[in-house]
Amino acid sequence: MSRIIFSSPSTLPQLYSTSRRIVKMSVAQTINPGVSFRSMVVKPPSHPTYDIKGVIKLALAEDAGDRGDVTCLATIPFEMEVEAHFLAKEDGIVAGISLAEMIFHEVDPSLKVEWSQKDGDYVQKGLQFGKVSGQAHNIVVAERVVLNFMQRMSGIATLTKTMADAACPACILETRKTAPGLRLVDKWAVLIGGGRNHRMGLFDMVMIKDNHISIAGGIINAIKSVDQYLEQQNLQMEVEVVFSLFKVFLRILKYWNGLVVGWKLIC
Length: 267
What we know:
The protein has eight helices and nine strands. The chain is of the alpha/beta class and about 270 residues long. It folds into two domains: about 5-150, Aldehyde Oxidoreductase, domain 3; about 205-265, no CATH class. It is elongated, with a radius of gyration of 23 Å. Belongs to the NadC/ModD family. Pathway: Cofactor biosynthesis; NAD(+) biosynthesis; nicotinate D-ribonucleotide from quinolinate: step 1/1. One of its GO terms (biological process) is quinolinate catabolic process.
């Protein structure tokens, strides 16, 4: 599912704002915007040099520039309060709910966010599965960033779920071929969709591929160099070797002689 909107024809395109004295919505769950990772349904992956909060701050800064939302400043009274609803525009797996809460909290901690679904749930087209209420200006400022993340994550989670179900009992893993700067978000969506994370980057796993084999002068040279490097650096980490020929596999087995552990072969 790649389409989620704040539905409505009333005040703003894609924003359904109504008097909170009139609209009522029964919800199964309310999550504190300051929720910790421990209480999330699916925790985001971790990275040693940046985190999800850094991604959020960059996304909001990218949108606000050096002036903020000039259209909101010009058209929406700062004291106006509204209630906006999340509407699924396609069937699929919803993802990014926890991230949306973090974004709303970053923009305005006083915004009240409620959900009837959670990350990883299946939603049908037309379902209103959440709402946010509070100052209209702050909701609209956060809206596009929230939707951009949720639409992307929901699309990834939905496709992952389809593939994971088809592959069961095998596991679906993703790659490093993610949008620059969005790796944590993309890999989080894979987890929500029922997949598993492969290596986060170049730092947490050795993965010997064609380029390394060619430059090292052959597969055995590459493996020997990795063994030596890990021993010298006193590192314990997984090693994967990617190859396409069965004879390469036989060479690797001959070198290892069944003594090396912690290595994976991918043909």
